Amino acid sequence: MSSSSGTSHGRPPLHAVQVLGGGSAGSGAHVRSLAAGLVARGLRVTVCATGRTEERYGFTEAGASFAPLPAGTDALHVAGIRAASAGADVVHAHGLRWGVLAALALHGRPTPLVVTWHRRVRAAGARAHVVRLMERRAVRTAAVVLGASPDLVDQARLRGARDARLTPVGLPGPRGAVPLAGPEPDGDVPRDKVLAELGVLGRPLLLAVGRLEPDQGYGPLLDASRSWRRLDPEPLLVVAGEGSERPSLQRRIEEEGLPVRLVGRRDDVPQLLAAADLAVLPSRWEARALLAREAFRVGVPLVATSVGGVPDLVGDAAELVPYGDGEALALAVSRVLGDAARRAELVAAGRRVVAGWPSEEDAVAHVLSVYDELVG
Hints:
By secondary structure, this protein is α/β, with parallel strands linked by helices. It has 15 helices and 13 strands.
């Protein structure tokens, strides 16, 4: 079977089932891109997902079939995956939980399973033991485990994967549901208008994007923001995202008078990013950070934590600081804001890095080569 086509010698096209579940922004955009590329190469693709995932990512627009998973228990999800996978040539699950459920759904069938890990699942105490068991079950059942960053590949091997590989993850092109959950920056929306709506005319705009959850680094980020009050003009940090930590973060912002605004989940994040003077990524762990990729693409300097796959992704195109070090984060942001030449240097380096990143074509070709190995 050729890696450029899903058909061979008159046989039916290869049928690949993508198991996504609810889909994070990154994994959802990746599966949408993957589905479109595989369909273009002659494969038949079915996407199994929950909730409003089809509405958000438009898998059927890409030529794939969509098999909605029923709401409810994991047992119902397993049944739904098993039904959608009947007769499939390969099943490809995305994420730890859905890798385990797909493994259960394929029990007793010869269908090969591919599992992609897009991010690390962190847990403590008894839950950490459960996560380790889930990781072992997923990787030991899978024929191939694909990791979005080198440390994920190492983790899969540690848990007993027979075959674990680094997979290229291309930056999806423009679409209504791009990774940062909004349309492409609109040239008809002037930067000054975006800044005026945020109340930041005449002062620098710092932008962070992501779920307001533990381990996303917003505590150290607020620590850092205290020192920015001494800058003239004082920058405003805008955080786009929702999550369980919003009430505690908002309380702290108000009690300490921090120059920070939580704006919730936004549909115009690309416009916010294009208007920003600096993007900040404070996470405890990232594989292929979407904010970094989008910041480089639109020419915005980045300060980020040196964690997971971030150093490998950004190279010398970002200021990197240790996770959890609010003082180092504050100094890095202040230094970049105060040095126009450094900002220009980072933007130019970012564009060079983007040019060397794998494309969507590369990502699809790699996955298809894996399918060919398993099915051919």
